[in-house]
Amino acid sequence: MDKYVVLKKSDFNGFIKSLSKTQKVMAPVAKGNNNYAFEEVSSGEEISISHIPTILPPKKYFMPQRETILAFSKKEHEWKPILEKEPLVVFGIHTCDLEGIQLLNKVFTTPPQDTNYINRMNDITTIGLECNDYCDEYASCCVMNNHLPNSGYDLFFTELSNDFMVHILTEKGEKITGGTPLFSEAQSAHHKALEQLRSKKKELFKDEVVVQNNELKELFARTVHSAVWEDIQNRCVACGNCTNVCPTCYCFDIKDDINLDLNTGVRIRSWDSCQNETFAKVAGGENFREERGSRQRHRYMRKFNYSIGKFNKYFCTGCGRCSRTCMAKINLKETINSLAGEKK
Amino acid sequence: MTQALLTESGYATQTGKILHTEQMTKLEKFFEISLPGGKDLNHAPGQFVMVSIPGIGEAPISVSSSPTKKASFDLVVRNAGILTGAMHNLEEGDTVGIRGPFGRGIDTNLLKGKDILMVAGGCGFIPMRSLINYVLDNRDNFNSVHVLLGCKTPADRLFLHETANWEKRKDLDFQCTVDKGDAEWKGRVGLITKLIPDVSITPSSTYAVVIGPPIMYKFVIKELLNKNIPDNQIILSLERHMKCGVGKCGHCQINQKYCCQDGPVFTYDELKELNEAI
To answer: What CA–CA distances, in Å, run from A170 to A17, A54, A117?
Structure first.
């Protein structure tokens, strides 16, 4: 499916209003101080069309911070798998985050498949939103090739002067645009405006680091013992913010919550971070990544090196969240440039 | 939420019944467990199961019995954490949750017709026992068989009735050494690495299997390489913290490998270039 329709900007509010009557709609909402968060909305007015990456990426809908996977009863010796899911429309996903979702989809659909994730994924409709401008100095979406839409959505919105140009990629998407008379056929003027916007973006979006995309894997392979990791070790406080906000970090912990009857309860999985000291520690006391520097290196390697071996993909989308949120000002672009400055 | 989908959950847990327990040392307790309907676990030596106690949690425990033992399987649990501590309070007739078996075990077909040199240190003896008993139950399939066992003290030795039998067998070279002896100990004292040079094997047709604490690997591998055993014939089982068992949660990751799926059994060949592996 490859079809374009348009939605008048003046109809956007009504579109979200009517959509939210039949389905739960999540979209970026301004939270002050240039912070944005995906939240449930019931009108277009609540949505921030122009936003830098939200505090948490939309991964929170695909793998919630806390998710029940089992219910148990001690007395009955019963273990019952639980699959939680909720039909959702997520509107306003930037291209960096669309890539993040596609990467997570890849992880959880790779055998052994994760039934809990797949069930949620199948019930979520994704509506992308183009970045017309460069968001801020932390982003590196251009070098990661995520500044333009690369699929992974049901609908994709681009803001033009009076309309949204809407790309329909899936039947799920077409059901939404076909379900209301607000969308009309895109005219040649719309296509032209879209083309102009995309070529203007070529001027605006430039590679953010001193190495090319295809050099990144090798760069990280040859700098495993670099002094850059020591410098990072001395600054990192192991708070785990970088992994929490990352659209492709998917590590989790599994814990039991027992009810006050001391009989029934649930098993939950919750986000975990490889930056936590005990993450790779075994019961015997051995810790395979005891130093903060080795844990940070592990995080970077999972984005730029190991992921190529495992999934043939970089797991950095260039969203810039890890650098934006770091209390110790560990900056992804600076790290890459520093590593690139090391002697070969 | 359909029934068909429910059974596909990777977290589906079966109820295992504890048939027998035995306190083996101060820290280690033995459990014989059966699955509903006496179903076979269908594991390979070196694989592990996720053991659950409702409300306490789940932990990876390696299987200690041979696949040739049907209808029930053995675990030996060292009291080292929350779940394992709680397991020590369980007795015959109690139940636990079981998921698995997980991971890549030891491919026993590879070992057929070969000299087998097994090197086990400390807790590593627990999963090694699965392979030892498998080999002994199919003894004709293998050439010479050597088992080297290293323990901290004589009091830390496990399965004494079995090892006493192994010592008597003519078709098995079983040697045990302790780091520190006691008044009654008449056996060897010293590191396990000292036993390796004198073992009589044909390196090119030998598979060495090493299971032990992380610190042991570097030194044992060095000795095995000195004996000219090829890299791809040195088999190691790595200890990592597995939370999910299905290659997702990230705790057991070594570079691009997930220990719970790609391992825990690896050849030295696969690991020697991996930073953080050994």
So the answer is: 22, 25, 20
Would you give per-residue pLDDT tens digits along chain B (278 residues)?
343 444 578 899 999 999 999 999 999 999 999 999 999 999 999 999 999 999 999 999 999 999 999 999 999 999 998 999 999 999 999 999 999 999 999 999 999 999 999 999 999 999 999 999 999 999 999 999 999 999 999 999 999 999 999 999 999 999 999 999 999 999 999 999 999 999 999 999 999 999 998 889 999 999 999 999 999 999 999 999 999 999 999 999 999 999 999 999 999 999 998 888 88
B3-102 is classed in which CATH architecture? Answer: Beta Barrel (2.40)
Write the ipTM.
Answer: 0.90
Closest chain B C-alpha to A312 CA, distance in angstroms: 11
- In a 13 Å sphere around the CA of A169, the CA atoms on its Cβ side amount to 13
Residues of A in contact with B8 (CB under 8 A): 113, 115
Direct distance between the N- and C-terminal alpha carbons of chain A, in angstroms, rounded to an integer: 47
Domain residues for the domain of A291 are 213-252+273-341
The percent of chain B in helix, strand and coil, each rounded to the nearest 5, is 30, 30, 40
Biggest CA pair distance of chain B? 64
Q: Is B36 on the interface with A (CB under 8 A)?
A: no
| Domain identity same for A12 and A118 | yes
